[in-house]
Amino acid sequence: MPDLADGIARFQQDVFPAKADLFARLAAHHAPHTLFIGCSDARVVPELITQGEPGELFVIRTAGNLVPAYTPGTNGVAASIEYAVAVLGVSDIVICGHSACGAMTALAESHDLIGVPAVAAWLRHADAALARAAGTAAGPQTVGALVRQNVYAQLTNLATHPSVARALAQKKVTLHGWVFDIATGSVEALGAAGTDTALAA
Q1: 104, 120, 149, 171: which has the highest count of C-beta atoms within 10 A?
Q2: Which of 131, 153, 143, 176 shows the shortest CA–CA distance to 37?
Q3: Annotation says 112 is catalytic
Q4: Closest to 158 (Cα-Cα) out of 62, 64, 94
Q5: What pLDDT is stored for residue 201 in this prediction?
Q6: Rounded CA separation 168/81 (Å)
Q7: 73 or 116: whose pLDDT is higher?
Q8: Which residue of the set 10, 30, 43, 124 is catalytic?
Q9: Known catalytic residue at 39
Q10: Which residue in the list 98, 125, 132, 148 is annotated as catalytic?
Q11: What is the distance, to the nearest Å, from the Cα of residue 63 to the centroid of all Cα atoms in its chain?
Q12: DSSP 95-120
């Protein structure tokens, strides 16, 4: 906690004054252009990776960057997606997976999750990714393959949300799949099979 308190002090003393005009505008105006759905992993920081300013990204972070397929009822992830799309009117949605993902590693290596039943139940939202990745890679490549297939699977789940389906039909939103490599800082944009591209050199 002392590090966090020191960080707040530095923010208030050095960062905030330099961006005072921006924060004054943001106090009365919230119009992010992108919904960024990433992993809760502390090593994956959307604003740092994209070098975005405050107010540009509406961020949802879940273990394994999982997006449950839409079902009626109360759901924090679904509510956040709906708000971003139907109320804020974001024009782009990114689902970003990453290297060395603990959730994907647990699934790829069949870890014993009996002691963490809530985690085990949550990871069922990656069942389609497991099925897609089966037989596509072996050994050390297994986790990486699952990370990629999981991004595709979660994009599919995302499209089941009514607000997203409507926005897609009206061509008001574009979906993107990314994979961030922690060790190199590279970000891949996932396209159709064989068309993955690096977003920056």
Answers
A1: 104
A2: 176
A3: no
A4: 94
A5: 44
A6: 13
A7: 116
A8: 43
A9: yes
A10: 98
A11: 9
A12: EEEETT-HHHHHHHTT---TT-HHHH
Q: Which residues pair with 179 in a beta bridge?
A: 97, 188
pLDDT confidence tier of residue 2, bands split at 50, 70 and 90: confident
- Whether 30 sits among the annotated catalytic residues: the reply is no
Helix %, strand %, coil % for the chain, to 5? 45, 15, 35
The burial class, CB within 10 Å (0-12 / 13-18 / 19+), for 65 is buried
Specify the residue for token string 């449950």.
68
Any catalytic annotation for residue 98? yes
Asked whether the beta carbons of 184 and 199 are under 8 A apart, the reply is: no
- The string of pLDDT tens digits covering residues 113-135 is 999 999 999 999 999 999 998 87
Q: Tell me if residue 7 falls in helix, strand or coil.
A: helix
DSSP one-letter string for 41-67:
-TT--HHHHHTPPTTSEEEEEEGGG--
Alpha carbon distance 11, 18 (integer Å): 10
Confidence at residue 191, expressed as pLDDT on a 0 to 100 scale: 82
Query: Does 21 participate in catalysis according to the annotation?
Result: no
**pTM of the model as a whole:** 0.92
55 Cβ contact list (under 8 Å, min separation 6) = 22, 25, 26, 29, 30, 31, 32
